[in-house]
TrEMBL record, chain A:
Its cofactor is FAD; [2Fe-2S] cluster. This is Dihydroorotate dehydrogenase electron transfer subunit. [2Fe-2S] cluster binds at residues 229, 234, 237, 253. It comes from Mesobaculum littorinae. The keyword Flavoprotein applies.
TrEMBL record, chain B:
Substrate binds at residues 43, 67-71, 124, 189-190. The active site is at 127 (nucleophile). It catalyses: (S)-dihydroorotate + A = orotate + AH2. This is Dihydroorotate dehydrogenase. It comes from Mesobaculum littorinae.
Length: 270, 314
């Protein structure tokens, strides 16, 4: 087996608030860790600060990478010891990252129109898919769900990569399942959809699973789970999936984090 | 150049660094070339297929983590078919960790594992998650003796007994394993612990309790290594919280002939090859000709002179 996963000490370029909940971390990264695919993740060794001493690495889905510029970026919500420690990073600081890890999204050669349905940090996970779709000349519609318009992430990223963005929010009542369902059905009935992708919400996962099954559409979901090693050794990050008529437990870090949508068990999903 | 080889009974290892069971699998070969390791130690295999424990299976603690993975296993037949051939090309000796619920099942598992390609068997007689209330064979001398003696009769392979910190009679357990025919002892498995989320008042682990590993475990594991090494004539392999060169040196000086690196690999996947290099450099710099010269080289304590200790007030 040839070594292909790398631990690298990389420099922080910027680490600023993206909105009230999220921060955007840009890193200057060496090329050998930038052979990434949309949906893959890195294990980040969060720094020890005066107040926080996170012990385990934190898995974080890749928000963007650029081999020409040598850039790697992550969008994260400050929610625990690890992300609080990350939030204190300043330009010029260095952090240790391990990756890229896991299996990302796959695109079949005959797909022409993709539909993305995401909420919360799922928007960050799915943003790189828009870049890949654009590179391959595929049409992509992104239905982005958020509590308020201000908290909707990545809309500019999606638009910059040619995606058609439909924002739905709790604050204006457009994010309820019935209305999101209508949006998706319109998309399928109108321009047409060859495959669907989701991340970040149990409710949206259930909804999309049901619609995809009814229309016979292939789908993929990026899952989250607490991890220790991130490489597949510790068996910590398993989740249940429905496959071939039975329940199987797969490692999110290894067999995932992207799984067939039809196999996901939404009540056990992120 | 220091001679880093170390003898564990009839087995000679190229160097004293190997992974701890449960923190290692073939996937680590994507990070570095595994052939540099002194030995390869598999995650514990049980005879029958087993699921694992409910999630969350790990949580952080100060200076380490708790785990309650629950030994998910595809069973011995799948292991022999899929895993043993996989390791043949790596070169380092393959040590297979086994566990079972009874001494008889342990013996049957050991017998099945006695195949070409397996260099030694590590009997996990200490995993705190399987036996009710954390009880395990390695808690007591007589259950240790029973399990190890049955395994000894079932295999000619070198046999390592992995001991538990959840015993109050470590020296007696160590001697029982030696008397029953173990070729080496591994000190130690995780210590049973608990962590609670004060906000929800729920245990942080799905299985309530779990094993403490990482730096938080190190002083306990080092004490056990020293006690075990001074209680038996067979080699002792240190394990518990090892993350730095000096950690390795401490265990060697305490009496370990080799060490296992576990949780530290989760933080730094390329740590083991780095430790091998650093130990070699240190030995060269210190003029240590053979690693074996370090083993058990603990000097006597140097307490403060009695006359400087304040007299108790009468």
């Amino acid at each position: 087996m040839t070594p292909k996963v790398h631990e690298a000490l990389v420099e922080v370029v910027s680490n600023d608030a993206a909105n009230a909940d999220y921060r955007l971390l840009h890193l200057a990264a060496p090329d050998h860790i930038l052979d990434c695919k949309p949906g893959q993740f890195f294990q980040i060794l969060c720094p020890e600060t005066g107040a926080e001493r996170p012990f385990l690495r934190r898995p974080m889905s890749i928000y963007g990478w650029d081999r020409a510029q040598g850039r790697l970026s992550f969008l994260y919500k400050v929610s625990g010891a690890g992300t609080r420690a990350l939030a204190g990073l300043r330009p010029g600081d260095r952090i240790d990252v391990l990756g890229p890890l896991g299996r990302g999204f796959t695109l079949a050669p005959d797909w022409r129109r993709l539909l993305v349905l995401a909420r919360g940090v799922g928007l960050a996970t799915l943003a790189p898919l828009a870049a890949e779709a654009q590179r391959r000349g595929l049409a992509l519609t992104a239905i982005c769900s958020a509590r308020t318009p201000e908290l909707a992430l990545s809309l500019d990223r999606f638009r910059a990569h040619g995606a058609e963005v439909r924002l739905v929010t709790d604050s204006d009542g457009t994010s309820d399942p019935a209305r999101v369902r209508a949006l998706i059905e319109d998309e399928i009935a109108g321009p047409g959809v060859d495959a669907v992708f989701t991340c970040g919400s149990r409710r949206l996962t259930s909804l999309l699973q049901e619609i995809a099954a009814r229309h016979g559409l292939p789908g993929q979901i990026a899952m989250e789970q607490q991890m220790a090693c991130g490489l597949g050794m510790c068996q910590c990050c398993v989740r249940p999936f429905r496959r071939d008529g039975r329940i199987v437990h797969d490692r999110v870090c290894r067999e995932g984090p992207v799984f067939p949508l039809a196999e996901a068990i939404p009540e056990a999903a992120a | 150049m220091t001679d880093l080889t170390t003898r564990i009974g009839s087995l000679t290892l190229a160097n004293p660094i190997m992974p701890a069971s449960g923190t290692f699998s073939a996937e680590l070969g994507e990070v570095f070339d595994l052939s540099c390791l002194g030995a390869l130690v598999t995650k514990t295999v049980t005879e029958a297929r087993r699921g694992g424990n409910p999630t969350p299976r790990v949580c952080e603690i100060e200076g380490g983590m708790l785990n309650s993975i629950g030994i998910p296993s595809k069973g011995i037949d799948a292991f022999l078919r899929d895993q043993v051939p996989l390791w043949r090309d790596v070169g380092a000796p393959l040590v297979v960790s086994i566990s079972a619920d009874t001494a008889e099942d342990f013996a049957r598992a050991a017998e099945k594992m006695t195949v070409p390609g397996v260099a030694a068997i590590e009997a996990n007689i200490s995993c705190p998650n399987i036996e009710a209330d954390g009880h395990a064979f390695a808690m007591l001398p007589d259950t240790t003796f029973e399990a190890i003696a049955r395994i000894r009769a079932a295999t000619h392979l070198p046999l390592w007994a992995k001991l538990s910190p959840n015993t109050g009679v470590l020296r007696e357990v160590a001697r029982a394993a030696e008397a029953a025919g173990a070729d080496a002892l591994v000190t130690t498995n995780t210590a049973l612990g608990l962590a609670i989320d004060v906000r929800t008042r729920r245990p942080k682990l799905g299985n309530v309790t779990g094993g403490i590993s990482g730096p938080a475990l190190k002083p306990l594991a080092l004490r056990m290594t020293w006690q075990a090494a001074s209680s038996v004539a067979i080699p002792v392999i240190g394990c518990g919280g090892i993350a730095t060169r000096d950690d390795v040196l401490e265990f060697l000086i305490a009496g370990a002939s080799a060490v296992q690196v576990g949780t530290a690999t989760f933080r730094s996947p390329a740590l083991m090859p780095r430790l091998i290099r650093e130990i070699e450099e240190w030995c060269d710099a210190q003029g240590v000709a053979r690693l074996a010269d370090l083993v058990g080289s603990l000097a006597p304590a140097d307490p403060a002179p009695h006359d400087l200790v304040p007299e108790p007030q009468s």
